[in-house]
């Protein structure tokens, strides 16, 4: 069995930064009055580890006592979060990915210039919800076919969720160009996401089977799975080593191994060891 591991595996820059900030905050706060709304990143192990360090997960700011510390997740938060935090006199630790913050700035700039902002992303994803919170009239599109519904739009700017598929974004751009007189494309897909997407394409062509490692909540992991499966039907998506079904592999297999951007290195190592130590 030959295992080829992707060079881009493990945490991306934004995830690494967010987790490091959360851990540093947990250590200095001595596990007192420390909260986060939702998951800091989309990985169950990371979330469990931070909970053990004393970061309590809640669903809304109203659950957090006045004067406590609030850690904001990597995907970004809508402006009302900051407003509500100030009202409750919370100490805010902002773990938002710098790339995501940059997308907010670009979207705001173009909207202020009078352009309609079209967001290519998952409507229910935290990153998209946060971005739309800064805009007056955003239009969220999940699929290229939705472009057909656009009417009376003279000029628009297309902005992407940072973990979107570049191929799908370019397909959408073509459709939008048919409906909108002036369309500007801002490629706000994270460079690390683009690198992983290219690497999974290469692995899918070179390998007998592909293993995608990451949480089912992870948008970038789902995208890797979708891209790989189009090229190589023998693509499998697992969350951790315990999900690995060794019966589907043979000793002669060449296996490509790639992870989502919020998958810890130790999980990747466990999956690799389980494959290599199969009987």
Which descriptors would you attach to this protein?
279 residues, alpha/beta, Cobalt-precorrin-4 Transmethylase, domain 1, Rossmann fold, four-stranded parallel beta sheet, 19% strand, flat
Would you mind describing this structure in some detail?
Strand 6 (116-120), helix 5 (126-132) and strand 7 form a beta-alpha-beta unit. The protein is flat. It has 279 residues and is an alpha/beta fold. The longest helix has 17 residues, at 13-29. Helices cover 40% and strands 19% of the residues. The chain folds into three domains: 2-10 and 192-276, 4-hydroxy-3-methylbut-2-enyl diphosphate reductase, catalytic domain (Cobalt-precorrin-4 Transmethylase, domain 1, 3-Layer(aba) Sandwich); 13-97, Rossmann fold (3-Layer(aba) Sandwich), CATH 3.40.50; 99-189, Cobalt-precorrin-4 Transmethylase, domain 1 (3-Layer(aba) Sandwich). The protein starts with a strand and ends with a helix.
